[in-house]
Give the backbone structure.
Amino acid sequence: MKFKLIILAFFGVLTTPVFSQTNNIVERNLACSINDGYTINDVVEVMRGFEWSEETSPAVVLVREAIAVTGSFQMDWDFLASFYYLSYAEMVEKRSAFRNRSLRQGTRLSDVATCGDRVRINNVRFVGQNNGEPIPDVTVAIGTTCQLNGSTLANAIAGASNISEFMGPDVRNVAVINRGFGGPVTPVNSEVGYRISFNSSAGFGEAMDTMQENLPTPNTENPRTCNVGGMWVQYLIHSQNN
């Protein structure tokens, strides 16, 4: 098991009709490493084989495999397990039921992967829902962390629309992530994450090529400063609507 504390600069993002009726989605993240002798495909197969009961299941579950991520993440971990709830009240209800459940039989995630004990909880606000289409089974997601430098969360959310328009129709949606609990000590509302999800892996490639051919003009009136981004392969594990 790898114990080093990590800074999760960016995660890929999802969209689903189950999220279209609410402003803030609660995201619960665990960083995990694949056990020797197994692959990410084994992790995905095991997790998709779980019995996701209505009593305990999040609205959506994703596995994100790190491909090219800034910072020390890939020195310590292989993927993120991300669990999405429609509200904090739902997360408390579902997590309480999960902790009180009977011991599950069969293959467990711990058989193929080892996850850290540190949980990080984020607030996620989506921009540009993708007409209620199902989440792809596998796709690419990218994003970055930005320092607000005196700007506001509302301004960051407004800026997400510009990202979606600039990168074109292959963008599934953009989300603004504001940390709620956990992680390294950081002043409240001092930074946000922009997360971009694509309709397909091919769509990601086309959008990135288009962006490189049409580089944006820096906005000198925008106080936000952003880090180099990260790239992930995103696997859908469970969705209430799929």
About this structure: The beta strands are 25-34, 60-68, 79-85, 113-115, 120-127, 138-147, 171-181, 191-198, 225-226, 230-239. Helices lie at 40-48, 73-76, 88-99, 153-167, 201-213.
